[in-house]
Amino acid sequence: MTGRRDEVLDAAVEVVGSGGLRRLTYRAVDTAAGVPAGTTSNHFRSRDSLVQGVVAHLEALDRRDWEAFGGQPAPAGPDELAAAVARTVRHFLGPGRTRLTARYALLLEGIARPAVREPLARANASLTHWGARWLRELGSPAPEEHCEVLMDYLDGLMLHRVTMERADFDPEPGIRTVLSGFLPPPESR
Question: Where are the alpha helices (DSSP H) in 20-77?
């Protein structure tokens, strides 16, 4: 069972993801969470602490999701990895869209605010480290570097698709192309 603080933070992610940081107010979060007025301010005494709470909450949610995803057996080859990454992209562009757009809003905020940027960078580094493990197992000669390139590609891809929707979009062919530049063909491994 989630606590009231988590309910408030989930609602704050919804507010930021659907309306941007300018909409992040105590009242908007209380309304989105369906809690009594003043609940958010009881947990976060300033707007800065609320923003930092949202960033930390996103980091925790990402860690939970990626640990569940990473706890699965390593993909048997590049095609299986491309399919798994494509499923993740589809999730972020579908049910996980609000969380994705909240992260992008916070990334932009992080340009001016190190307190926002640093936890986001830490979460990205953890994800890169995790992804590099799979690329290493699949034969990448430079797994950390290749994972950073893959992550940059995925960020750009999702940013474009979240801002310029396309009903027939399939991320898998592009992901396969990127991975083919890093990984040896299965027969040579």
Answer: 26-33, 39-43, 47-70
CATH superfamily of 52-188: Tetracycline Repressor, domain 2 (1.10.357.10)
pLDDT tens track for 16-49: 999 999 999 999 999 999 999 999 999 999 999 9
Instruction: Write the CB contacts of 52 (distance below 8 Å, at least 6 apart in sequence).
Output: 115, 116, 119
Are 26 and 41 spatial neighbours (Cβ–Cβ below 8 Å)?
Answer: yes
Contact 151, 124 (CB under 8 A): yes
pLDDT tens track for 69-109: 666 777 888 999 999 899 989 999 999 999 999 999 999 99
Instruction: Enter the pTM of the model.
Output: 0.86
